[in-house]
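Sorry, explain these tokens?

***
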Amino acid sequence: MSGSDNRIRKFTRISLAYPVALILVDLGLNAFAFRVVPPVVTLPPPQVVCALVISAALLIVNHTWTFGRVNLVSLMKGYNDTSNLYIVLKSVASDLNP
């Protein structure tokens, strides 16, 4: 093993240990020197959860309608801009014409 390999291993260990050591020192300082208390995470109020559920449902409906409509129009007009649509149309054509 050459000196270069030893140097690379040494700096690799330092590079891996340095962030872990910093985090441990930081947690120790926060816990013992500064008496920082970790925040308590709770669920949002039921009204906020209800609003999030409604907006998620609206986004799903909008996404489904928009992309479904775009794909139907492109099929009707014969557009094959996307690779997926091109593959589908090519496989359908090859299935119809043996």
Observations:
- DSSP finds three helices and no strands in the chain.
- The chain has two domains: 1-41, 42-98.
- The mean pLDDT is 82.
- The two ends are 64 Å apart (CA to CA).
